[in-house]
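Thread: pyridoxal-5'-phosphate complex, take 2
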Amino acid sequence: METFTKPFTRQEPIPEEAIAAAVEVMRGGALHRYGADPSHVAALEAEFAAQTGAAHALAVASGGYAMGCALRALGVQPGDGVLTNAFTLAPVPGAIAAVGARPVLVEVTEDLVLDLEDLAVKVDRADVLMLSHMRGHIVDMPALMEICDAAGVVVVEDCAHTMGAAWAGHPSGRWGAIGCYSCQTYKHVNSGEGGLIVTDDPDLAAKMTLLSGSYMLYARNGTAPEEAVFARHKGLMPNVSGRMDELRAAILRPQLRDLQTQAERWNTRYRALEHAFREAAGLTVIERPQAEAFVGSSIQLLAQDPGRLGAFVDGCAARGVEWKWFGAERAQGFTSAHHHWEYVPAHDLPRTDGILARLIDLRVPLTFDLEDCAQIGRIVVSEAERAFA
Ligand SMILES: *Cc1c(COP(=O)(O)O)cnc(C)c1O
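Output below.
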């Protein structure tokens, strides 16, 4: 019996060009974004705004910070409801709770996207939707925006898994009022920790820049709105420090230039795995819509019979293939399910619970080659045969 031996959590090295830029920053000692001139952070903001077609970008300390900053800038108050996906990861309800607000969880579908029927039922319970493109699955964005626009609900997009992705040619993060991205090690660019925010709205951009802790140096943001816009918000925004530093921006700039190439490399691996998994008994791949240009940095399968899923996951694990099972009792590793968030008022979400019980998830590291994907495919097919056939 063959066993897979590569780790599922290994990253590629940081590009040499990025390392050289980081070393230069350290030699100069100017690691604070507002002390550096010229600033890598400001340049990163200008470059990311251009890349996504946004008027404004802001680099911050993490993806979670980006989401919290967006909610604060939108004026979400303690006690307010904020709509979000019932299937997402802990930083999303965490960012809502961090501003004292209350997650209102919306069911997801078997395609792992927000259930628009449940959204239509719940849309009046909040003024903001924190839409999580969980595991890179993008919902029908025009349909979602129509529901939210009609109800006056502002959309913030959590693009932690969709940096470089698009729906109908329009980038993920550019449909709602604000797009939030993570540059944390396990996402599509790697600065250890880090986040990016985009918006077209100058008032939101100014508020978020002030919130992130810009003192009187806010004009040095790489895409700063005019002084008159800042003047409207200056004294009103508390400093909730969460800036990005020069070192992180220095190593992110070359990575962002490579994003499309990396996305294609991810998708080559994703397609190889998907092709192999179609032969696995008892397991179904999630079909990707035509309009969705995704980045296949992870892959999910649904089991027809959740009763045998534990045996399948254990069988694969014994042969070096590490599935995460979202239906497991307790959160393990980076998985999480809504009933693990005990600070969130309990929700009745039968549809989501039924899906999570059948859902498994595999990371697709770029350190795997196509032969690795083929081997994983063979192991999964043979273990599925044992567990489900
Ligand atoms: C990683 C992640 C975030 C936020 O990431 P940080 O670790 O705070 O940078 C947000 N949403 C999802 C779905 C994530 O996986």
